[in-house]
From TrEMBL:
UniProt keyword Nucleotide-binding present: yes
All residue ranges annotated as the Mvd1 C-terminal domain in the record: 206-330
GO BP annotation list: isoprenoid biosynthetic process
InterPro entries linked to this entry: GHMP_kinase_C_sf, Mev_decarb, MVD-like_N, Mvd1_C, Ribosomal_Su5_D2-typ_SF, Ribsml_uS5_D2-typ_fold_subgr
Gene3D superfamilies: 3.30.230.10, GHMP kinase, C-terminal domain (3.30.70.890)
Organism of this sequence: Chryseobacterium phosphatilyticum
Protein's UniProt name: Diphosphomevalonate decarboxylase
SUPFAM superfamilies: GHMP Kinase, C-terminal domain (SSF55060), Ribosomal protein S5 domain 2-like (SSF54211)
Amino acid sequence: MTTQFIGKPDFTISTQTVSESCPSNIALIKYWGKYADQIPANPSISYTLNHCKTNTSMEFIAGETFSVQTFLAGNEEVKFAEKIEKYFRNIEQYLPWILQGKYIIRTENTFPHSSGIASSASGFGAIAKCLMKLDDTFTGKISEDESLRKASFLARLGSGSACRSLYNGLIVWGETEEVEGSSDLFAVPYPDTEIHEVFKNFNDWVLLIHEGQKSVSSTVGHGLMKTNPYAERRFQEARENFVPMKEILKTGDMDRFIKLVEHEALTLHAMMMMSEPAFILMKTGTLEVINKIWDFRRETGLPLFFTLDAGANVHLLFPGDDPEDQIRVFIETELLRHTQKNGVVKDVMRF
Ligand code: PMV
């Protein structure tokens, strides 16, 4: 099944420095639970962000003993280097030259370092793109489509959700009969002609409720789905949710979109609470914000809603170019006070 990604045995390496940039993404139907080799337990769909990005430069020193040195915003990160070393060893069959040199990798995120915004998707996305640039130089060019697909395949092996960050717009990862060409091995763009205009111009304002390390990592969280008694039902539900999602995206039905997206976010966190051992990543501020959003919607009927990542931050979603005054004032006066240091990262999804 993965043979199309096996690397070419003939290559000529040379010392090179390449740079790439990759955005983060936010899932609408969530991936939570996986099988061996980063195969997702259910399909997922996400929006790729425009501003939250990782910029990476990769220096490859050909012929030196294999080693990896990483710098995040100028500071050496030994733990990250160990992770990347392991990752490179793991993908050697797809890039046979990969262990034939030394790497110095410098990365910078455009979003605050301690914001709690996941950097693994944009981080592995950028690394996979750098690797494909080197591969093009060492083994000969392949088409842009093939190169992107292989970058998505490689990013998945670093961090599952990273495979969706390689493309702009609404992106699907995981096989579902609702989306032609979808695969467990790499992500594909959701067909543009099937997307109502209202979903092509959206905002994601991330309220930074809790900055800093999460108490339970995604890796541990995915692992706990193996013994979660609700896991199978959850995987089934996510698969089923692609049916209404497809209709909603086509027709532009905002009310149903809001209901489905919020349900997905709360289900993700419900799964965490039903794990053994249980864990909760939401904070008091997360719950206060959710309740205030619901009250606001009840009172105004305006399309302001939320999704959550595996963390305490709240992603505020609303359509259009700029927030209507009522939404902006509500966020500033009612929601910002639940963040640490008035923290909000304003991103957009435009395509
Ligand atoms: O890619 P990972 O292993 O960091 O998992 C990400 C999982 C969620 O962000 C919670 C959901 C998703 O589909 O992105």
